[in-house]
Every structure is written in C-alpha cells, then in structure tokens.
Amino acid sequence: MTTEWRPASLIPTTGIKGGQEQEMRATSATLAVLKAVPEFARSLLKSFGAPVGKIETFVEVPFEASDGRVIRPDGLIRISRGKRSWVCLVEVKTGKNLLDREQLENYLDIARVNKFDALVTISNQFSPAVGVHPVKVNGNKLRSVKMFHLSWIALITQAVIQHDHRGISDPDQAWILEELIKYLEHPNSGAMQFDDMGQHWVAIRNSVKDRSLRKSDKGLEEVVDRWIEFNRYLALQLAKNLGAEVRQVLTTKERGNSAIRTDSLMNQIESNGCLTGMLRVPDAVSDIKLVANLSNRTIESAVTLNAPSEGTPRSRITWLLKQLRNAPESTRIDVSFERRSNTVSNTIGLLRDDPIIGLLDDRHINPRRFTVAFPEDMGIKTGNGQGSFVSSVQLNLDTFYREVVQHMSPWQQPAPKLPEAESDA
C-alpha cells in the first residue's frame, strides 16, 4: 500500500546516533538553508545587524587560540556587500545540552582577534527577556563583539512565519525551507519543545497546596525561572500560529534585570500561590493575562477592557455579549462599576436566560470595566503530554484566543453626527 511508504526528506531524521551528530546535523542543515533561502536568512539575521548581501555559511571552521589550541566553532556566517563583509560565529546546542560560558568567551576572543562582528548561539535555552542572553559572560568580551541568542523554537517560529505568512518568492526555496521546518520539528532533531517545569515542580506545587511554601524553599527559584521560560515559549508558539510577533509584557526594570522578575514572582507565589504572566498580541483587544493558581489548581487566561463610555448600563453589557457569542460556556465575565468598589461575576453558561440581570446589580450604575476570563482545571502530570501542566496551560491559551480574543474589539467613540436636515414644507 502506498499509504505505508515514507516520503523522501531533504534532511532525514533517521540514523542520528548521538548528541554530537545531532548538533552537527542541525548546524549544517540550518546554515545550508540560510544560504539557500536568502529571504529567510534576512528575516532571521537582520535583528543581529546583518546587512543584505551575498550569504556564505561554513561549519567547523578552525581557529588558533592565543595558547596554541585549535578551536572550532560549530559554524560561521559571512555576508558580503561590495568590499565590506559582516561575519558572525555560530555555536549550537541541541537536546538538553547547555551553552558553556568558558566556550562562549573563547569564541568571543576569536571573533575579536579576527575582527568579526558577532557570536550567535542557538540552543533550547530561552532568553529571559528580548535582547538578553541566557548566559552571562565577562562584559569586557563584548566591547567589540556582540553576542545574540536564538532558542530553537524562536528559529522555527521565524521559519514558519516566513514560509506560511510572509511567503517565499521562489517555489524551490519555499520547499527547502519547509523541509528544514519538518526536520527541526521532529523529536530526533534535538530542537525540543518546552518539556517540563523542572525537577522541583511537584514539590513546590504541593507546598503551595499545603500552604507551607516559603520563599527560601529549595527549588522555588528554578520553578519560577522555568515559568518565565514557559511564557516565552507560549509567546513564540502563538506567534508561529498567528504569523505576528507576540511578546511577554515586562516592566522596564524587568527587561534590564531578569532577577527582578524572578524575585517578584517568588514573592507572589509565596503570598497567594499564583504564577502570572502577560502576553501582548499586536492589535488584540488587550494584553492576555495568564494565571496558574497552584492553591486551587486552576489555570486561567483573561483580557481586561474598558466598557463603552456612553449608552445605558444595559446597552454597554449588550455590546460586550455580542462579541462573546461563540465563547465557551465556562467563560467568566467580571464587571466593575463607576463609583462602586464591588464587582459582579457570572459565566456565559449562566447568562443565557437573562444576561443583563446576571451582570447588573443596579440598572442605574454604569459598568466601567470588563474582564473576560477562561478558567480550567490545571493538568497535574509532569512532562508535556496530555493531562500535564504544560499542555493544559497551552491548550487553555489557544482555546481562549481562538474562541474569545480574536473575536473582540475595543469600544470606539462613534463619529459626531450632523443634525437632521429639515424637510421641505
């Protein structure tokens, strides 16, 4: 039967015997596609300062270090334009292998001596914030050479956005990029998805449930850092599906110092048992707030928006409900009011009979703000399979965006109207 025949792949995933071969194959495949598909290369490298020009890529390029050792970075990219060229070294890790500080500093020294422009690292580690490298190196090494990082999921996201949303002008190049995507998304490639909340996750989760958690508990910082990485992963996954840039929302201080974000979340989970995050989607009705409540083991995605500033209380409620026709019945609406401290909450399922009464405790007080939330039970399994915490959060976010957020728009003040023209006598 032809249905049992395996289609030929440009980059096969079979026959990978170990971590070193896995890294070599991923490096060679990625760099070769950058050379073969210039549109993808430009979209991926422009944020690193790379110019538009002729692209050349190399693997295992040998350099002699100051102590006589021969050092071989995994790859090198050279882009030439006229008499000038931009060159960066590339270091790659796959699977659970982590970038090594000493190794990166050696490569930075090589780049400085050879007057190269940058060092680009690719691994399954996530940047704590946009533009922040996951490995802290000696600042003196970065005076003349810049260092950038790409997680594998970020690279795959860029490839999918270029292929599916922006497009590739040459059909053969489009097919080549598609083959790279298929390869990197295969488990054998070593370009992993976010797989777990870490070895201390179950212990921390149970301590929150028992109300015995303390900020000083072993493993709490690791769990919080994994949650931050998970939010970055969720943003990239949503970006890949939407074809638009999705980012974590961080304060200015948090962007400049990732430790501030970690400390804030550690205080939060100690005080109320919750981990929170915020994602920003271009042109969405508002930022999407994620809440993992470890105390009652629920997860929730939510958006908050201002109520219309004109009309009756009833018409303002009706305006919101029209946008939620397809929302799941468990979707919750929280309403806050002008000159009132109390709020009213109800679910879509309980609002079917009389939605107005269900959200207004006083028909003369105008709603001020709406929060639309989608709560669900938290997955308790480890890993990222069905029933796990990781998969339950991702499914909750995807469902909420598909069924609720993408159908919503903020209220806009209508244009002023001219008075009615007087009819002829």
Question: How would you describe this protein?
Answer:
By secondary structure, this protein is of the alpha+beta class. The protein has 2 domains: 10-187, Trna Endonuclease, Chain: A, domain 1 (3-Layer(aba) Sandwich), CATH 3.40.1350; 201-407, no CATH class. Helices cover 35% and strands 20% of the residues. It contains 12 helices and 14 strands. It has a 7-stranded antiparallel β-sheet with strand order 8-9-10-11-14-12-13. β4 and β5 form a beta hairpin. α2 packs across α4 (152-166) and α4 (152-166) packs antiparallel against α5 (171-184). It starts with 18 loop residues before the first helix and ends in a 22-residue tail after the last helix. The mean pLDDT is 90.
**Any idea what the radius of gyration is?**
26 Å
The level of helicity is 25-40%
Strand segment count: 14
Task: Domain count, please report it.
Answer: 2
Strand content: 15-25%
Distance between the amino and carboxyl termini: 84 Å
Mean pLDDT: 90
Strand order of the largest sheet: 8-9-10-11-14-12-13
> Which sheet architecture does the biggest sheet show?
7 strands, antiparallel
Uncertain parts: none
The number of helical segments is: 12
Q: What overall geometry do the principal axes of the alpha carbons give?
A: globular
The run of helices and strands is HHEEEEEHEEHHHHEHHEEEHEEHEH
Structural class: alpha+beta
